[in-house]
Amino acid sequence: MPAKHEPGDPAAAAEVGAPAAAGATAAAGVASGAAAPAEAGPASDAAARVDELRRLIERYNFEYYVLDAPSVPDAEYDRLFAELQALERDHPELASPESPTMRVGGAVAGGFATVRHSRPMLSLNNAFDDDSVRAFDRRVRELLDADGLDVRELRYSLELKYDGLAISLRYEDGRLVQGATRGDGVVGEDVTANVRTIRAIPLRLKGIAPKVLEVRGEVLMWRADFLALNARQREAGEREFVNPRNAAAGSLRQLDPALTARRRLRFFAYGVGEVVGVQTPDSHSGLLDWLRDVGLPVGPERGCAEDADGLLAFYRRMAQRRAELPYDIDGVVYKVDRRDWHDRLGYVSRAPRFALAHKFPAEEAVTELLDIEVQVGRTGKLTPVARLRPVFVGGVTVTNATLHNEDEIARKDLMIGDSVVVRRAGDVIPEVVRALPRDPAELAAGTGRYRRFTMPTRCPACGAPTAREEGEADRRCVAALACPAQRRQALWHFAQRRAMDIDGLGDKLIAQLVDTGLVQTPADLYRLDASTLAGLDRMGEKSAANLVAAIDRSRETSFARFLFALGIRHVGEEVARILADAYPDAKALENEDWAALAERKARIQKENARRRQRGEPLEPVPLEGIGPEI
Question: Is 343 helix (H, G, I), strand (E, B) or coil?
């Protein structure tokens, strides 16, 4: 798969929408091959332009997510999206639930309803070695032969086993009406509002409108998007996700669809459930091609084989290519290609006899836990980090791994000096899985090989006391910005591109500013002058002047960026944006009666639950997306 760029977020497009909407049309039209439209004036012109924009954006989504062949740059896509948002805002009568702009999410749900699948979503039997795969092929041949079928026609369709979350999409008359998780295979959760925010999933099928088409597939998150999400979580002082699958599942099951919309989820279709009113291909490989043609993304890494040797060759080829893929897989899947043979082969223990999942071995290795060090984060959180004897696992050499917190160390009963199993969780984050049995003689002799680790009661960076609040897993340094480690992290956070965007203020320079005492708080940055900066190591006059200019430029910023830059605990980018939308400035935020607001919000949410049951319009909820803890 070629390297891919990512169309901008709807939220990002909205931010630039005001200046772009008027001027982007001609450029976007030329880029897409469409005629440059005139400015929308009368309602009929606006309706025509809205129609045109929706068709263009859905076409570009199809090219990007399904064909993997984008035809316009990100900037053009974002400008078209912003223009559509502006037109729909100015002409609310043109609003449609199928508009691409509706993918940014809706109101907070009151919980997930249950959905009974029209046909069960079955799991697959697993194989872990070559002998099991050959036994599968042999059983299929024996069953087909016993049924009087010609095994010379046997062919298998080969796919990847995606490490994501299985879902079912129900289309009626060509339109998406429901999305549901697999659940227990019979009953799942209704996540329709969240599914509609995933731009890889078409809201309307391309070229067909069957009475019912139920599509089965996998929601997953690309590794690059997972790393970016965890970086945002880390900057906001929020819990990080363990791996992309965990992140995809957590994102899809958000009670606020707007949060799902802001996390880059993808989708690959791999089969169908109930089908009414349309003829589907006879072969599974043909079905996947057909699903792609009607607008649904299908994994590009596929193949066919005629025997067990072909199955195993595909498995080994994908095992070698696993690290190159932009998403996580944990094996491959073999399916008998002829779909009319599926029912003839039947099922056993709620798993089909016509398919098999061949799992990859775990990416694990054994090494020594040399030491445990403690890092101090921006919010004062103390994170124990395992220092490991270098070991090659999952394609990279691993020397460090996070141990999360003291409860995790106790749960795994880890001691410095242990031989430990290390895994690259989700092929991304190194993780200490467990300790191997200790040498009884070494333990009895007390030679010092094994040492218990305890979290420090004093901050390793500043010596201030540490504390663990009731109900929290993390221990924190109480010194706040008086702690140099927290100060360095806070300054880096304040200056980063998505916050105050101070170009040239990197880690090494921040360390110098803190160590020399020039900067105690972010406000001190605005008192620096070029002559002072020029006196620091590796800072010439020109670099100093450029940094002072960058600091000065940062004075003009949005309230949302400023709030995010302050690094208030739990106030990440999304929360900062919600607060900035609700309050004009910091003074209004300071003067809010938060206890009264929390009570009013809880009262409105209860009332809305009653209104939802009665089918009545809902009352606006203040600070939607911000819960009681924040």
Answer: helix
Do 608 and 598 form a contact (C-beta atoms < 8 A)?
A: no
Mean pLDDT by 10 residues, the chain (630 residues): 36 32 32 38 78 88 69 76 85 83 50 85 87 96 92 96 93 96 85 91 94 96 91 80 82 81 91 96 97 95 96 96 90 96 83 91 85 93 94 79 91 94 68 90 85 95 93 90 93 91 91 93 95 90 93 94 90 88 91 90 87 84 80
3-state secondary structure 522-585: HHHHHHCCHHHHHCCCCCCHHHHHHHHHHHHHCCCCCHHHHHHHCCCCCCCHHHHHHHHHHCCC
Which helix (H) or strand (E) segment is 515 a member of? helix 507-515
Closest CA to 420 of 409, 410, 434, 406: 434
Structure tokens at 171: 């289309």
Return the amino acid letter for 615: G
Q: Quote the strand ranges of 265-337, DSSP E.
A: 266-276, 303-305, 329-336
Q: Which of 293, 78, 117 has the alpha carbon at shortest distance from 202?
A: 293
Q: What is the DSSP string of 455-493?
A: --SB-TTT--BEE--TT-S--EETTGGGSHHHHHHHHHH
Q: Is 163 helix (H, G, I), strand (E, B) or coil?
A: coil
Joined tokens for residue 354: 């016509």
608: phi then psi, degrees, rounded to nearest 5:
-65, -35
What tokens appear for 79 in the block? 């400008």
The tokens for 118 are: 């029209």
* Nearest in space to 178 (alpha carbons), one of 167, 164, 165: 167
3-state secondary structure of 201: coil
The first and second tokens of residue 187, run together, are: 């009953």
Answer left, alpha or beta for residue 77, where phi above 0 means left and psi between -120 and 50 means alpha: alpha
Residue position matching structure tokens 């590796």: 538
* CA–CA distance, 67 with 55 (Å, rounded to integer): 16
pTM above 0.85, yes or no: no
Nearest to 72 by CA among 56, 94, 53: 56
Q: Are 563 and 585 in contact (CB under 8 A)?
A: no
For residue 163, what are the contacts with CB-CB under 8 A and spacing of at least 6? 220, 243, 244, 245, 327, 328, 329, 330, 426
Residue 364, both tokens: 């694990």
Q: Hey, how many other C-beta atoms are within 10 angstroms of the C-beta on 630?
A: 14
Tokens 């639950």, residue located: 609
Strand boundaries in 197-280, DSSP class E? 212-220, 266-276
Q: Calculate the alpha carbon distances from 281 to 22, 285, 286, 340, 490 in Å.
A: 46, 9, 6, 10, 58
Which residues are catalytic, by number?
A: 161
The alpha carbon of 239 is separated from its chain's Cα centroid by a whole number of angstroms, namely 14
Q: d(Cα 458, Cα 466) in Å, to the nearest integer? A: 5
Q: Classify 470 in phi/psi space as left (phi over 0), alpha (psi -120 to 50) or beta.
A: beta
Q: Kind of pairing, strands 126-127 and 355-359?
A: parallel
Q: Determine the pLDDT at residue 10.
A: 36
